[in-house]
Amino acid sequence: MPGEGFSDFFYDAPDGLRLHARIYGEINSGRWPVVCLPGLTRNARDFHELALRLSSQTERKVVAFDYRGRGQSAYDPDISHYTVGVEAGDVLAGLAALDIEDAGFIGTSRGGLIIHVLGAIAPAVLKAVVLNDIGPVIEAPGLAHIRSYLDGAPKPRTFTEALSAQRGVHGADFPALTEADWERMVSALYRETDAGLVSDFDPRLVDTLASLDFSKPLPDLWPQFEALTALPLLAIRGANSKLLSAATLAEMQKRHPGIETITVEGQGHAPFLETGTLPVAIAAFLDRAERKIQKK
Fold first, then answer.
1. CATH number of the domain residue 107 falls in
2. Can you give the pLDDT at residue 146?
3. Angstrom distance (rounded) from CA 101 to CA 84
4. What integer pLDDT is reported at residue 264 of this predicted model?
5. Residue 122 within a domain
6. What is the per-residue pLDDT for 28?
7. What percent of the chain has pLDDT over 70?
8. Residue pair 210/151 in contact by the 8 Å Cβ criterion
9. Is residue 177 part of a domain?
10. Residue 207 domain-assigned?
11. What is the per-residue pLDDT across 28-40, written as a single tens digit (0 to 9) for each?
12. Whole-structure pTM value
């Protein structure tokens, strides 16, 4: 809604499914647009505060996507389409519909995996990358933890119950969060219906994790990461993250000598990008990247 600092944009995926994104800021500001890609079960609302700041203070157009089965995008009748590859194609279709040829990308968790895929199949679309608590190696215990709390996710009837439920699951990993932070998280994760609160994603997404064997290392994405080493890259890690290890972050630094990194104390997977100094750091990173490329 324009009065809230954004407009809704709907477009068709390559297979015809109706998808949604939020658009913040001016379309033709002359600066790089920014594309925001959320986590597995999350949606465009996660980026609302960050997108407002980037669009208003740095005059950038910001596009935050709802993947299929999340937020205001349609649910897919075939859950086999809930894959990183299909979602990468959906993002490219959305950019084409918006006439965006390239942009800075911010990817949280699954969004960062999609960026790895885009680096392999459409590298020209990436101008700079921010990876939020994700890298080429996904720690199996961290993903198992995600599946565990999704499998046993409570079904709160009220906002207060939802706050309590989320603190119960994530509180130990996020001692730095304020009451306002928790409230924004719950507002983004749930939606109101006549029957009460419901999680704002297709519940069948949980089934896509059922076949994973967490007793074995998961396939890594180092070959795909190599495509990102030519780009300005900022990697953000939650100090309490179970998904992105400190060792993987160190290896990313070895393979990409120009990488910038931030470790967020008091937060786990994944840091809230609107908190603390992160919005300023992200805006400054994008500005530096744009100036560097313009000088070439």
1. 3.40.50.1820
2. 87
3. 21
4. 98
5. yes
6. 66
7. 98
8. no
9. no
10. no
11. 678 999 999 999 9
12. 0.96
Q: Which domain holds residue 241?
A: 2-138+217-295
Among 282, 155, 145, 125, smallest CA distance to 209 is for 145
Domain assignment of residue 110, yes or no: yes
Distance of alpha carbon 296 from alpha carbon 283, whole angstroms: 21
Both tokens of residue 273? 């990008």
Which residue's entry shows tokens 């960026």? 115
Close Cβ partners of 17 (under 8 Å, ≥ 6 residues apart): 68, 73, 74, 76, 90
Query: Cis bond leading into 270, ω under 30°?
Result: yes
Residue 79 makes CB contacts below 8 A (sequence gap 6+) with: 202, 204, 205, 207, 208
Q: Which residues of 103-114 are buried (b: 16+ CB within 10 A; e: fewer)?
A: bbbbbbbbbbbb
Query: What is the spatial distance between Cα 140 and Cα 76, in angstroms, rounded to a whole number?
Result: 27
Cα separation, 122 vs 69, whole angstroms: 23
Write the DSSP string, 183-227: HHHHHHHEEEETTEEEESB-GGGGGGGTT--TTSPPPP-HHHHHT
Tell me the three state secondary structure of residue 156. Answer: coil
Instruction: Please tell me the predicted confidence (pLDDT) of residue 193.
Output: 86
Query: Which one is predicted more confidently, 145 or 21?
Result: 21
Number of domains in the chain: 1
The rounded distance, in Å, linking the Cα atoms of 129 and 289 is 9
Q: How far is CA 155 from CA 36, 149, 152, 183, in A?
A: 28, 12, 9, 17
DSSP label at residue 74? P
Q: How far is CA 77 from CA 17, 68, 81, 179, in A?
A: 10, 10, 9, 37
Mind listing the pLDDT tens digit for each residue in 118-160?
999 999 999 999 999 999 999 988 888 888 888 877 788 899 9
